[in-house]
């Protein structure tokens, strides 16, 4: 679907927006603005990573935005984000995306309909800012998930669901951090000295803040996973400790039972009248002695 948001006659520049363009529409756009075939090819790749290119007479940006339609177990770039391709020069801007993006309409309403922008760079700044803001809401949800899993790890002693949930949180945080790192070049070139202004500085500040949030989330997730495995290891050690204590108690008793269970003919103790109670008493004494020794050592 092709939409024309601004025209050179009315606004001083052209803004054309394409949603899930057909091959014919892409060929027309490429011909109209003399776009290089490699740029068009990159534009059509759904999983292309963020980048900024200066190609002859135009600039080419690929930016990724977080999608609200992502499933709870989504953990890849393609599942978590959507791609927006931007071609622009001094007198036109072309935005291309496969799915409908609300932020495009919001920017168009604020920048064009209400007359908030009078040049290409103002529109571009608003687009990049709106794209960055899509990562703000998921960061709050991921932080809330971490709080939930932290409570489960330290208080409720759940196992598989916690580990599975932490895995998906870690994957999402790592994917978004990677995208933000790759997006730094875009932010850096937009805030280049020759076109730096209060709006580009604001975008850089927003980028730094969001990057910092995901850095903290990544660190907290790693620490929580480490704590989880430490607690799991501690619980395993406690179980082994209890089993070892039981084995120490039963080892001498099993030894005694083993000896008198051999049933050799010449075993005088088997014919004693008090043989059975003596053996039982001996086993009780050994058990109490082991218990007292463990208690003295602080192992019980």
Main features:
300 residues, alpha+beta, Beta Polymerase, domain 2, Methane Monooxygenase Hydroxylase, Chain G, domain 1, 6 strands, rod-shaped
Explain the overall architecture.
The structure is a single chain. The chain has 300 residues and is of the alpha+beta class. Among the domains are: 1-117, 2-Layer Sandwich (Beta Polymerase, domain 2); 236-297, Magnesium transport protein CorA, transmembrane region (Methane Monooxygenase Hydroxylase, Chain G, domain 1, Up-down Bundle), CATH 1.20.58.340. The protein is 63% helix and 13% strand. It contains 11 helices and 6 strands. It has helices at 8-11, 23-33, 37-44, 77-80, 102-113, 120-133, 136-156, 160-182, 184-190, 198-260, 275-297; strands at residues 2-6, 14-19, 51-55, 58-66, 81-88, 92-97. It has a 6-stranded mixed beta sheet with strand order 1-2-6-5-4-3. A hairpin with a 2-residue loop joins strand 3 and strand 4 (58-66). The longest helix has 63 residues, at 198-260. The radius of gyration is 34 Å and the shape is rod-shaped. The mean pLDDT is 87.
């Amino acid at each position: 679907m092709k939409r024309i948001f601004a025209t050179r006659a009315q606004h001083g520049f052209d803004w054309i927006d394409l949603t899930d363009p057909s091959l014919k529409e892409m060929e027309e756009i490429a011909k109209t603005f003399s776009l290089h075939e490699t740029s068009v090819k990159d534009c059509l790749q759904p999983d292309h990573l963020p980048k900024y290119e200066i190609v002859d007479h135009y600039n080419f940006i690929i930016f990724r935005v977080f999608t609200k339609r992502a499933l709870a177990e989504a953990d890849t770039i393609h599942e978590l984000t959507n791609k927006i391709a931007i071609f622009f020069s001094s007198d036109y801007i072309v935005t291309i995306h496969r799915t409908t993006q609300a932020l495009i309409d919001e920017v168009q309403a604020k920048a064009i309909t209400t007359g908030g922008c009078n040049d290409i760079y103002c529109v571009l700044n608003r687009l990049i800012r709106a794209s960055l803001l899509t990562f703000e809401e998921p960061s709050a949800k991921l932080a809330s998930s971490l709080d939930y899993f932290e409570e489960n790890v330290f208080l409720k002693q759940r196992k598989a669901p916690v580990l599975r949930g932490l895995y998906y949180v870690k994957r999402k945080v790592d994917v978004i951090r990677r995208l933000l790192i790759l997006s730094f070049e875009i932010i850096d070139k937009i805030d280049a000295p020759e076109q730096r202004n209060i709006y580009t500085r604001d975008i850089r500040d927003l980028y730094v803040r969001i990057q910092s949030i995901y850095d903290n989330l990544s660190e907290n997730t790693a620490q929580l996973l480490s704590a989880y495995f430490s607690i799991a290891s501690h619980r395993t050690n406690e179980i082994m400790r209890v089993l070892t204590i039981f084995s120490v108690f039963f080892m001498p008793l099993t030894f005694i039972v083993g000896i008198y269970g051999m049933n050799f003919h010449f075993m005088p103790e088997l014919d004693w009248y008090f043989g059975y109670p003596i053996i039982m008493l001996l086993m009780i004494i050994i058990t109490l002695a082991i218990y007292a020794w463990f208690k003295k050592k602080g192992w019980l």
